[in-house]
């Protein structure tokens, strides 16, 4: 059942987006909050243009078919349509978030700091751990994105009281982030499962530390997504292709050991978020189950319009194409 010809990327993303927004909406409805701004951090799953603005080359996501179905031109989104963060903004009646690097935009209703290829860990962490000449696609990691936010903060609010009032109605989307850390270790570093597993507490620690730093800056409402099922990504299915049928989940065609790894990250993240909730009982810390939402597509692709073809997700990476184009560089 695992696919040879997969549906177009935009279809997959739209299906995923639909399910995710549906689930997230469920959360937001139950809490009766009407957010008046959104601040977003993360990687290609959320970038609305930062990497493209920052890029000196001509990345694939700056060319058609990216942007084709909705914006009618490339926007720097790693999709031909909208991203989860776009649907979230629309759901709250907010405009699409301008990318932070566009500068000079109206940011009262939010801004997007996410960057394609970004990691949760600082770039220095990867030094000496990746293959010769391989390095993260971008240095604009989570801590850089947080610094951008802190630099921007005075233009949004200047006193603790003003910030508390303003941010009490803001949603902070912290991720998805961390997927690229694992992509770099597995795909550019050739690391074993055991070694990559030993980095999971560090990656989770970086995500939770970022969330805590945002809370200390006044954030109250945080939505922290987990990872996508790596074992369903076409890059991973190709690189870790196995003749042993036992390695594949018969209901999805995905690699079981990689999906177990994604679940391991998610379990550690959820546990760490529980601790954070205990430490900051007044913060509303929500977990977004990207894995659970997307694996539904794998289980019954027909229900989501992808026929018999199965599905494909590349966590944290723009697309397989963009991965290959820089993965080989
Ligand atoms: C949310 O707030 C916006 C802007 O203040 C308003 O237009 C909209 O009606 C509100 N929605 C709900 C469901 O309260
Ligand atoms: C990231 O920073 C390192 C060290 O300063 C530099 O060598 C590298 O070229 C940078 N990478 C990118 C993609 O900017
Ligand atoms: C905060 O203070 C700075 C410097 O005085 C000013 O430029 C900025 O507009 C102020 N921000 C707000 C939200 O009032």
Automatic annotation (TrEMBL):
Keywords: Glycoprotein, Hydrolase, Signal. It holds the Pfam family Lipase_GDSL. One of its GO terms (molecular function) is hydrolase activity, acting on ester bonds. Residues 1-30 form the signal peptide. Transmembrane segments: none annotated. Gene3D superfamilies: SGNH hydrolase. CDD domains: SGNH_plant_lipase_like. Residues 309-329 are annotated as: Disordered. InterPro entries: GDSL, SGNH_hydro_sf, SGNH_plant_lipase-like. Belongs to the 'GDSL' lipolytic enzyme family. PANTHER family: OS06G0129600 PROTEIN (PTHR22835:SF667), ZINC FINGER FYVE DOMAIN CONTAINING PROTEIN (PTHR22835). This is GDSL esterase/lipase At1g28570 isoform X2. It comes from Elaeis guineensis var. tenera. The gene is LOC105048179.
């Amino acid at each position: 059942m695992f696919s040879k010809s997969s549906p177009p990327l935009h279809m997959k993303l739209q299906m995923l987006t639909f399910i995710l927004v549906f689930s997230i909406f469920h959360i937001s409805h139950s809490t009766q909050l009407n957010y008046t701004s959104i601040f977003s951090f993360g990687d290609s799953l959320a970038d609305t243009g930062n990497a493209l603005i920052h890029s000196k080359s001509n990345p694939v996501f700056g060319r058609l078919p990216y942007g084709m179905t909705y914006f009618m031109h490339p926007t720097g989104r790693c999709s031909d349509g909208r991203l989860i963060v776009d649907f979230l903004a629309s759901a709250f009646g907010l405009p699409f978030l301008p990318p932070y690097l566009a500068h000079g935009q109206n940011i009262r209703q939010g801004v997007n700091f996410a960057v394609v290829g970004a990691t949760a860990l600082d770039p220095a962490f990867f030094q000496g751990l990746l293959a010769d000449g391989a390095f993260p696609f971008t240095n604009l990691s989570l801590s850089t994105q947080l610094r951008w936010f802190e630099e921007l903060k005075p233009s949004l609010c200047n006193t603790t009281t003003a910030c508390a009032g303003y941010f009490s109605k803001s949603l902070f989307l912290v991720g998805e982030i961390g997927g690229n850390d694992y992509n770099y270790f597995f795909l550019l570093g050739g690391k074993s499962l055991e070694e990559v597993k030993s980095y999971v507490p560090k990656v989770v620690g970086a995500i939770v530390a970022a969330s805590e730093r945002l809370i200390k800056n006044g954030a109250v409402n945080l939505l922290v997504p987990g990872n996508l099922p790596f074992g369903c990504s076409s890059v991973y299915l190709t690189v870790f292709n196995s003749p042993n049928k036992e390695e594949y989940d018969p209901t999805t065609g995905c690699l079981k050991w990689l999906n177990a790894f994604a679940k391991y990250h998610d379990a550690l993240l959820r546990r760490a978020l529980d601790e954070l909730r205990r430490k900051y009982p007044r913060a509303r810390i929500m977990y977004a189950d990207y894995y659970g939402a997307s694996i539904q597509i794998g289980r019954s692709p027909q229900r989501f319009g992808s026929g018999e073809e199965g599905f494909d997700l590349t966590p944290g990476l723009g697309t397989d194409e963009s991965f290959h184009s820089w993965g080989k560089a």
